[in-house]
Amino acid sequence: MSILTVKNLTKRFDGLVANQDISFDVAKGSITAVIGPNGAGKTTFFNMVTGVYKPTEGSIMMEGQSLVGLKPHTISRKGIARTFQNIRLFGSISVLENVMVGLHNHLKGSLLGIMLSLPSSKREETFAQEEAYRILEYVGLAEFLNDEAQSLSYGAQRRLEIARALATKPKILLLDEPAAGMNPRETKELTDLIFKMREELDLTIILIEHDMKLVMEISEHIIVLDHGEKIAEGNPEEIRHNPKVIEAYLGTGAASTAS
Amino acid sequence: MLAEILHTLPQVLIDGLALGAIYAIVALGYTMVYGILELINFAHGEIFMTGAFIGTAILITLTGLGWIAVMPALLALLLVLVITSVLTGFIGMGIERIAYRPLRKAPKLITLITAIGVSFLLQDLVRFITEVKRGNYILTGPSMFTDRVEVKTSSVLSVFNDASFKESFIIVFVVAAIMMITLDFFINKTKWGTAMRAVAQDRDTSALMGVNVNKVIGLVFFLGSALGGATGVLFAIQYGTIDPYIGFILGLKAFTAAVLGGIGNIRGAMFGGILLGVLEMFASANLTLMTNGVFGAEYKDVFAFAILILVLLFKPEGIFGKVVMEKV
Amino acid sequence: MKKYIDLMKSYTDKVKDNKLAQGILLGTYILVTTLSLYLSGKSVIAFLLLLASLLLLHFTKLGRNTKWGIAALVLVVLLPLSASQGDAYQSYMEVGTLVGIYVAMALGLNIVVGLAGLLDLGFVAFFAVGAYTYSIFATPQAANFLSFGTFPLGGEYFWVFILIGGFVAAIFGILLGIPVLRVKGDYLAIVTLGFGEIIRIVFNNLDRPINITNGAMGLSSITPPKLFGLTFTFPSQFYYIALVILVLTIFVVRRLEYSKIGRAWKAVRENDIAAQSMGIHLVRTKLTAFAIGASFSGMMGVVFAAKQTFVDPTSFTLLESITILVMVLLGGMGSVPGVILGAAIMTILNMQVLTELTNWLNQLSLNNVISIPDALSPAKMQRFIFGAILILFALYRPQGLIPAKNPIFNAAKLKNGSTPKGQEKQKQEVSLKKESASYVNLDS
Ligand SMILES: Nc1ncnc2c1ncn2[C@@H]1O[C@H](COP(=O)(O)OP(=O)(O)O)[C@@H](O)[C@H]1O
Ligand SMILES: [Mg+2]
């Protein structure tokens, strides 16, 4: 069953076509990878799904509802969360608070209740702290709870972005180059985390990634973009042997990884 | 009512053009800096004001030396314009170097705060230098180009009244036009202009392509401030009396003009400036009439501000601007 | 020598950790300064030193309630009592009241600038709105455009008007914020700058066609507040009003700061795109900050108008807005203790130090010791001084005198989970985790 369906999705910036007539389905509970060379339009696709950019043409449907034209915060409430290619943490607040921001829409406290310091808002605040801490434990960052987000290592920052996204309790999680800049050990831990999240949290995961080993290992379905167009789609095995893909993106390096 | 508005229209247009030309050039300074750094350079209004004071000071000195009497007025003006614009150009560059450049990676808020600080500092510096020298911070320069020229607009259309202007109006308008055309040429046709446009579009990539970004930014500040300073001189000649606080409201309106034309857009700023000047003069002449005396000319500053709000509400990208999206 | 230094060091270390020692030292300090103010009757130095005890108090390790208790003792009892002996009593209390007013305003601006990261350069406009809201109804002015009711209203209404003033200011904040905050954050600076001027121009001219504000003449003989038959006329009385509102303000700001709203503000400040992706409604969040900040300013405007019994547009200039901005930046953006300190310093600098310095320099000039041109007298140099503070702090100490601190959470407490919901979830989580561990192991 598909949870996300895009049809004829196109995005133009002035003259430049960043996404051209893209259509595909994402199966519920799957891990789908979007790959392609730099500038292929992968991030643009994420930006349209999350409401950061408005599509020029085409439709994006989540469980039968259109997402086109919705604001990012509304889309977040519908259950789509994301991380960013160029890390966008709330740098100068603490790690725990970063995750607590993700809980924003799951806290009901009203302005007045907070100002008057009603018991219910106090309780809710405590709950938020505990919940955020639990999520930090889940991604393995609990020990850094009081550190400033910007003081974390690169790999830890990427994990924190994931933790923050999880806090919104998404149905679909979009990861934009989550392994970029990670060393092999961190990449391995990330791979484990992605599996774990999918299994335990009832998530559909779509990720953009350049690390082919990770992509092939982790994803059930792969979509290949090049110059804004979808040039191939299929399971890792099919993609590995697709001549178009090899030519456009994987090049000779792919053959050696494959063998 | 329409007839009455038409009576005064020629005069309104003339006055509006003079004011608009001044807004336009000051707006250029805002728009260039914004285009390249995305910074509202609050100090730009004060550069304009400083230019007015430097120019007036030079004119007063020249008069004191008796040079003005023997020199052709136009030559004196040219001399003053050149000296003033070079000086204010360097002041602008200096401000960028000292106050903005160290903060280029800092949050925007901090840079805006520094800009406000610079603006206040300049106001007070000019105030106390003038006050120490002359005992009063309100300055009146020697009168130049004050002969009035009559325009028989009534012969064009009978509903028009005749209009008139001071000779200085021609000076303001011609000098402003020359400055704008030169700048437009410089930006669109020269190597440095190309570099400026490149940096405005993508600073990092330009740097990779071998453009010296710091130099280009310095140049932008120099040009903007030189033009702003020269405009200050024109203002002083056209309106006679200046004080250290003239730059503030005028800067605000010039920024409005820049937003009106589409921020970052050079020709837009020119157009926005002229348009705002004419609209403002129109409002100050006819507001009383049009609102049956409810609002008078004293609301002309409010009027300019209302335009800013309306533009932001309905066409935030301005008349010539295009919608830009932050890359995510 | 080294031994001596070590000894000193060990002493200071001890004091650093020892609550009792800190308490005793602070107590002594407060006692001495109180006594010297009490005995000298009129000593700016003693007055300032006594106020400084609150700063020391902030840095002690004493418990939170103890700190509040001591602060209350100093501000409610000791300061007014010891100042009451000299003939400068009212002028000290005037300074105290103004410090209270400005601290509350600075705390309001701190929400906008410090927490939400929006630069508001016309903050004083909201102060003006509050001040005029009360003044119009507490003078015969309102009768010019209202056909019902009798004006001026009695002093009992003052208390309601504190809320009304805050509310009206908040409405203005929202009306101004909607067009701007929707578009681009940095336009806000220039629009608010314009708005500050516009409000002044409008108040200056709103004596026709209907006389609402009495134009440049201003409104005078504003009804003073009244409570249980007691009329507030002296600064020593307003001091307590300002103090109460200030304490409430601090309480509210603290609550907001560490709530989901405060976090949303900080998130928007740090990265608005990420904040939106976390489900935060950008415009609403910014507007909330803007409106709450404005309402603080509006409330204090009401107090200000009642205290002065006179308002006119000249009290609400750009310089005032910038002064409040300087307070926030100087103290530390986003830092409540910092902003309190910044506001106190700037108010005292403005009210006392600059004027005293000017008088002193004038004295020197009179006695021909030195001659400072009038143009350079410190009281006239506000713009220069404020501009310099803004530039220097932005460049070299953007975090201010007392930088903002993130709250520290106790991991052990969070782990155990006090709320039932949390516990339940956690258990579930643990069991899930075990399963998944085996899954991953099998796979690899
Ligand atoms: N906001 C924008 N304005 C203009 N061009 C953009 C914008 N965002 C992306 N692009 C362009 O769209 C193309 C695709 O970019 P992107 O989606 O980031 O690629 P990828 O993530 O696959 O590397 C690039 O050429 C990029 O420059
Ligand atoms: Mg990308």
Automatic annotation (TrEMBL), chain A:
Its EC number is 3.6.3.-. InterPro entries: AAA+_ATPase, ABC_AA/LPS_Transport, ABC_transporter-like_ATP-bd, BCA_ABC_TP_C, P-loop_NTPase. The keyword Isomerase does not apply. Signal peptide: none annotated. GO terms for molecular function: ATP binding; ATP hydrolysis activity; L-isoleucine transmembrane transporter activity; L-phenylalanine transmembrane transporter activity; L-valine transmembrane transporter activity. GO terms for cellular component: plasma membrane. PROSITE patterns: ABC_TRANSPORTER_2. GO terms for biological process: D-alanine transmembrane transport; L-alanine transport; L-isoleucine import across plasma membrane; L-valine import across plasma membrane. It comes from the Bacteria. It is an enzyme of class 3 (hydrolase). This is Lipopolysaccharide export system ATP-binding protein LptB. Keywords: ATP-binding, Hydrolase, Nucleotide-binding, Transport. Residues 4-252 form the ABC transporter domain. SUPFAM superfamilies: P-loop containing nucleoside triphosphate hydrolases. The keyword Repressor does not apply.
Automatic annotation (TrEMBL), chain B:
The keyword Cell membrane applies. It is a multi-pass membrane protein. GO terms for biological process: D-alanine transmembrane transport; L-alanine transport; L-isoleucine import across plasma membrane. Pfam families: BPD_transp_2. GO terms for molecular function: L-isoleucine transmembrane transporter activity; L-leucine transmembrane transporter activity; L-phenylalanine transmembrane transporter activity; L-valine transmembrane transporter activity. It is found in: Cell membrane. One of its GO terms (cellular component) is plasma membrane. The chain crosses the membrane at residues 12-35, 47-68, 74-95, 107-129, 168-187, 216-239, 245-263, 270-290, 302-325. InterPro entries: ABC_transp_permease (IPR001851), BCAA_transport_permease (IPR052157). Keywords: Amino-acid transport, Cell inner membrane, Cell membrane, Membrane, Transmembrane, Transmembrane helix, Transport. Belongs to the binding-protein-dependent transport system permease family. LivHM subfamily. This is High-affinity branched-chain amino acid transport system permease protein LivH. It comes from Pseudoneobacillus rhizosphaerae.
From TrEMBL, chain C:
It holds the Pfam family BPD_transp_2. GO terms for molecular function: branched-chain amino acid transmembrane transporter activity. Residues 415-444 are annotated as: Disordered. It comes from the Bacteria. InterPro entries: ABC_transp_permease (IPR001851), LivM-like (IPR043428). It is a multi-pass membrane protein. Residues 422-436 have a biased composition (Basic and acidic residues). GO terms for cellular component: plasma membrane. It is found in: Cell membrane. The chain crosses the membrane at residues 20-38, 44-60, 67-83, 95-113, 118-137, 157-178, 185-203, 238-256, 287-310, 322-349. Keywords: Cell membrane, Membrane, Transmembrane, Transmembrane helix. This is Branched-chain amino acid ABC transporter permease. The lineage of its organism: Bacteria, Bacillati, Bacillota, Bacilli, Bacillales.
